[in-house]
Structures are given as structure tokens and as C-alpha cells.
Design a protein that fits this description.
The chain is α+β, with helices and mostly antiparallel strands.
Length: 170
């Protein structure tokens, strides 16, 4: 019996290499997609932490007004900052803003600025800030704007700013 020699041309080897190349490209694409999704999730976490830090700083600012014993005017006390351009304020400078005492785990401490807006003098029965049915509200009320800024756990990552207007009857 005579054996025949098969002349193989290497088609199986070529197809195997092409399939290996396709699987490598698919794996690299999956790694890149996973990396981008991880960065997006981390960004969302940063923003959530920054919002919590800003809200905590805002509440600290409101409490500093609420528990003040004297009226807070810009030229009278250190508790109030007079930053009229709060949007361009250097928030890292301690003389421009106040660091919040309430700390959110995983976030940098929030900072806040309190601005005196104006004194509202009300006529009898025209202003009742406390609640309906209580005192008539005649007298003066100081109105303040509190701007707070929070950042995530990276320097400058996930910065969020919130504002509130707060009135205190003295």
C-alpha cells in the first residue's frame, strides 16, 4: 500500500491566527469600555460626595447665623465674609471663606461664605417669618445669602456649589 502525501497550505494556522487577533481586539475593547464606565461611576460618586459636603457647609453657615448673638454685619464680625464675587472666589484661601465643621466622609470639608444682603423693616402684620399664627412679625429682619462649595475626594474633582437665602429676626 502506498501512502499519499497531503500538501497542506497552512489554512488552519492562518484562520487560527485571524481568530486570535479578533479575540484580542474584542478583549482590548472590553477593557477600555470597563475603564470608561469605572471613571463615570467614580465621577458620579465624587459629585454626590461634593453635594453632601456643600449641603453640610450650607447648614453650618445657617447655624452660624442662627446662633449668633449680635447682628452680623460685614465690618463688625469675623464670622461673616463679604465676597461679592463668590463665583470667582478663591475657595482655598482661608480669609475668603469659612471651613465647615461638619465633615462628610470621603469628601474634602465644605466651605461657605455668608453675605449680608439687607435689613428688612416690616410694618405691623406684613412680615411673619416664623410661622402663621405666631407673633405679628413687626420689626427688623436681617437677610443673608449663604454660598457653600463642596468637592469630592480628589483635589478639584466633583465641585458643587449651593446657595440659600436666610433671614433672621433679631
Amino acid at each position: 500500500m502506498k501512502l499519499q502525501r497531503n500538501n497542506q497550505q497552512g489554512v488552519v494556522l492562518f484562520m487560527s491566527l485571524v481568530m486570535l487577533l479578533l479575540l484580542t481586539a474584542l478583549g482590548a475593547s472590553s477593557i477600555q469600555t470597563t475603564s470608561v464606565q469605572f471613571q463615570m461611576a467614580q465621577s458620579v460618586d465624587d459629585i454626590n460626595l461634593a453635594l453632601q459636603a456643600a449641603e453640610a457647609a450650607l447648614r453650618d453657615g445657617e447655624q452660624s447665623i442662627e446662633y449668633a448673638t449680635d447682628m452680623l454685619f460685614p465690618d463688625q464680625q469675623d464670622e461673616i465674609n463679604t465676597a461679592t464675587a463668590w463665583a470667582t472666589l478663591d475657595w482655598s484661601d482661608d480669609s475668603n471663606s469659612t471651613e465647615a465643621e461638619t465633615v462628610v466622609e470621603g469628601a474634602a470639608p465644605g466651605r461657605y461664605v455668608i453675605e449680608f444682603i439687607r435689613e428688612v423693616k416690616a410694618e405691623e402684620d406684613s412680615l411673619n417669618l416664623a410661622n402663621i399664627g405666631e407673633e405679628i412679625g413687626a420689626g427688623g429682619t436681617s437677610v443673608y445669602r449663604i454660598t457653600a462649595r463642596g468637592t469630592g475626594f480628589g483635589a478639584g474633582r466633583g465641585a458643587v456649589m449651593v446657595q440659600s437665602t436666610y433671614g433672621k429676626r433679631w
